[in-house]
Amino acid sequence: MQNTNMSRRSFLGLAGAAGAVVAGLGLAGCSSGDDADEAGSAASIDKITMVWLPNESAAEFDAGREEFGRVLSEYAGVEVELMTTTDYNVAIEAIASGEAQMANLGAEGYIQAQQKNENVHSLFTTADTNGTLDNAKYYSRIAVPADELADYEDAESPTGYSIANIKGKRMSFVSQTSTSGFKVPCNAIMEAFPEDVTSTDDLAQPGFFSEVLFGNSHPGSCVNLLQGDADVAAFDDIDVDMYLKVPEGERDEVNQPGNVYGVADGAEQPFDRVQGAEFGIIQSTPVLNGPIVYNAEVLPEDVKNKILEGMTSEDVANNEQLFAPEGAEDTGCIWSKEDTSGFIAVEDEWYDPIRELA
Known about the structure:
By secondary structure, the protein is of the alpha/beta class. The chain has helices at 62-76, 88-97, 107-116, 179-192, 218-226, 251-254, 301-311, 314-317, 352-355; strands at 6-11, 47-52, 79-85, 102-104, 120-126, 137-145, 170-173, 211-214, 232-236, 244-245, 260-263, 278-288, 292-295, 323-324, 335-336, 343-345. The model is unreliable at 13-43 (pLDDT under 50).
């Protein structure tokens, strides 16, 4: 891994304040020999490294990440080091290899990490606003410039729009490990063009599309579209809407095809260079909220249990430095009470629908 792909910051929990702070990565204080062969049963752990995807690694979320690290450290009783990244693959490799004990991933990233190491498991995710998993979702969008929206109108489509005209266009995805920025839109394209596309590999390189770009984050993919480098782009709602003028209405309504979004006045980087630009949605698909995951080889079971109990508590759900109150702006929070009531435990099989995508 290159240093340009990640940065680190550490927090020391109250319960671990008297313990030694370890400079290196991984476990310290673990027994050797036969005892060390038992995955997740280390006698002690001095530090938890928590890795973040590029979207949540952005500077505007510094305060939210730091509060997460502080709270996680408090419940785990040990130091927490936060690792930010600019590449999805860095985050996936960190948790799969055991360099990190925990990670914030999308559903597809989680599945890929688990394929690399079966000891990677889901721990908790963000609940819906009712505190359940029933509507714990966000949206994957396929979008085009607003002034070209009419080219994708389709009277025979239930939504009034279709992706029938995207073949041969310049396409921007987020990353090949992104759920909503690659896997879900690719699945939709494969279903719409079964004779032209047989796998996601066909869409990751020029062929079906005249050019394929990767924004490496959802804002990056959206900006590729808005600055004219791509004709079509895939990205989600939760990682870009804070930069945009969002149409009025319920979340399900404003994510419907035909809706137009513009860049908000004074939007921060990278949207500062596309002020006044607009896009329209031509396809929108609900996606399961991504999990916070752990690697059982390097996170002891008792520590994992303390983390799960603490992070899914009402105290955490009511922490306004983690979950921004409804209507609040520029809080630095990663999550908002407009979308979720807090964290909820999630089992591995909940992500089977993502595994079953083409």
